[in-house]
Amino acid sequence: MKNLSTKIVLVSLLTLSLNSYAQKLPFSGLFGQIGVGYNGSSTYASGTTTVNSVKVLGDYNVGKTYNFAESIAMGYNYVINPKVRLGVGFEYNIMIASPKQDVTLKSGNTTAILGQSMEKNAYNFFLAPGYVIGNDGLAYAKFGLASSRTDLLGDTINFKGYTVGVGYKYAIDPNIFLFGEVNYSVYDDQSSSPVTSISGVQANHTLNYTNNSTMALVGYGFSF
């Protein structure tokens, strides 16, 4: 019983010591941040279109969309040593005033508008290893599992993939920091079978999509 009590006391002292150690170091513990930025997304389509039981051969073009984005993230920075951090977190990005992009099919000399595409939002779960620079800076990389939701020809397409990024945080006081980062996301292929019309005639599509995006963000955050 005495040995058990001793072990409990030692573990408690060690925990308090680690917590005290972490609190003395910059960019450690729980954090939350808000950012705004610019997002560029590229979607590519391939497949077949059938009109009046006849397959129409041609090239699909979804194009690129550019829009402002708002980002909210929360996470925790683990102290590996006085200079090294490992961040774990969740990030949610909302596309602001996302423009609608025409989806077209070019067959021969004719180009038909099939419908529209619009990116809605994206999120990711990430790891962020970082290195403390001086007393006020943190350079970090990001690696995460990502998801993006896009409305395409009346269907909602949920893209799944991964994201990588780099960033820098600067502490303006012990609890408030500024940050800037750039993230690149690549998503797995998705498919859908939308029904639209071409010149008033029903068109049935079987399409495969790929997507990638680049987002640049700046903002501020709080360490708790």
Automatic annotation (TrEMBL):
<feature type="signal peptide">
    <location>
        <begin position="1"/>
        <end position="22"/>
    </location>
</feature>
<dbReference type="InterPro" id="IPR011250">
    <property type="entry name" value="OMP/PagP_B-barrel"/>
</dbReference>
<protein>
    <submittedName>
        <fullName>Outer membrane protein beta-barrel domain-containing protein</fullName>
    </submittedName>
</protein>
<keyword id="KW-0732">Signal</keyword>
<dbReference type="GO" id="GO:0009279">
    <property type="term" value="C:cell outer membrane"/>
</dbReference>
